Amino acid sequence: MNCFVYWDENSHDGVIIDPGAFEDFEKKEILKYISQNNINIRLILNTHGHIDHIMGNDWAKKMWSVPLLMHKDDMPLIDKALDQGAMFGVTFPKPPAPDEFIDEKSEVKLADTVFKILHTPGHSPGSVCFVDEKEKVIFAGDTVFNGSIGRTDLWMGDINVLMDSIQNKIFRYTDDYMLYPGHMDETTIGEERANNPFLNGEYDKFA
Ligand SMILES: [Zn+2]
Fold this sequence. Notes:
alpha/beta; five-stranded mixed β-sheet; 207 residues; 8 helices; binds zinc ion; six-stranded mixed β-sheet; Metallo-beta-lactamase, Chain A
């Protein structure tokens, strides 16, 4: 999965989004990037509560001692994280409880940036996107991918809810917005609106 470090070049304040780091080499790579760029991590943000995105929460929390923010509707996933891990044969430290729940009314600030929070359920009930409207950047979690969409066969997943989240919340933004998804390569709203087979009208012919 993709872990992002997003930071302000003037203040060097930054956030870490989805610290899914599990192996030591992953943690080292994140730490190297942060120290090479002199970034002060101020917040840990989770797009949602699936284990691949939160396995490193405990590590990140101990490393930076900063608030961890997520949407409350994914709390059942956090509570059951170790059981989920066991199902996939992975063991990791119990994820810490979030310090703050966020929803569409929350103001998440980093330097002069205020992230807009989109509640975008469908892949999981508490999935959110973090939008920097000034820089035209969206951290989309597992909602929309480059050429695909998030799976909806997991707990409380719902394809119709997901489609509604993408079409009516994420696609409200203009084509020039960058999209950074939770897996695979970055893309843009324009590219996905035009060419994503689930979103450009092709899917509706078969649904
Ligand atoms: Zn997921």
